[in-house]
Design brief:
115 residues, alpha+beta, 2 helices
Length: 115
């Protein structure tokens, strides 16, 4: 069976720590889990996740209740048919969150390695 992958994006000026926590909470409430996360300084975060097809509406509704407005940017045809999947079918997804603020980039100090 072909695995369905959904792609979402969000742009927010809210605190990045709060928003990431809310995404984690929404996944937990939807009985999903985080597969991977990448943080690009304090400007953007990408979260890859897995959840059951039947729990996708819970995930989306919970994010909306938290004030995290996501846009479905899945390429046409890729996410088609998710609504017709059995409720227990696993689907993967990714959520890219861009944070708008006036804070400078986070600087990471990389220690010098002798030799």
């Amino acid at each position: 069976m072909r695995r369905h992958h959904l792609v979402f994006q969000a742009i927010t000026s809210r605190d990045r720590h709060l928003v990431v926590r809310q995404v984690q909470d929404a996944l937990t409430l939807a009985r999903g889990w985080v597969d991977d996360a990448h943080f690009y300084s304090n400007k953007m975060t990408t979260i890859r996740f897995t959840l059951a097809a039947g729990d996708l509406p819970v995930f989306r509704t919970t994010l909306q209740e938290y004030g995290v407005m996501i846009e479905d940017v899945t390429r046409p045809g890729i996410g088609a048919g998710v609504a017709s999947l059995p409720d227990d079918a696993e689907i993967s997804g990714s959520l890219q969150i861009t944070f708008l603020h006036n804070e400078p980039d986070l600087k990471q100090v990389i220690p010098a390695v002798p030799g």
